[in-house]
Each structure stands twice: as structure tokens, then as C-alpha cells.
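Sample intake sheet
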Amino acid sequence: MCVQVLHGVAQKHDVSVANVALRWVMQQGDGQTVYPIVGLRDSSHIENNSRVLELTLDADDLAAIQAVLTKAKGPKGDCYSFERGI
């Protein structure tokens, strides 16, 4: 379900799903101070990843993503709780 939502948002903006995911992270908080560290396997990823700087997710995009996140059953607690079986 989440990938379908991200795919729909990506198609709407003519970008990749990865671009949408990166932009969502960047728009958290005040939208000006969160910049994820992006890894590149090779230089071919530079152009695609740079597209995220021109993308802004609108209220409908953010609401669609939030609706999925609200239903998600992820691990409780810190990011390592899932690995510890908590």
C-alpha cells in the first residue's frame, strides 16, 4: 500500500519513488533543516537524486503518505527494538 501511494505521488510529479521518499524526509520538521545523507552506487544516481531539490510535496501528497504511515504497524520504540524482538 505504501509503495502504491509513493508511486502515485511520483507519477504526479514525474519523479522517482526514491525522490518522493527523500523529499518527504526533507520536509519533516520546519522543512528547512532536515537533509538526509544519500548514498550513491555510481555517478548515474547523481542526476536522479538532484531532482529532489526541485520537488515540493503538496498538502495532498503529504496527507496521502501520512494516511499510510498512520496505519503502519512498525516497530515500537527506538529503531533497534525490532531487531531485539521487543
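Comment: Residues 3 and 17 are 8 Å apart (CA to CA). The chain has a mean pLDDT of 84.
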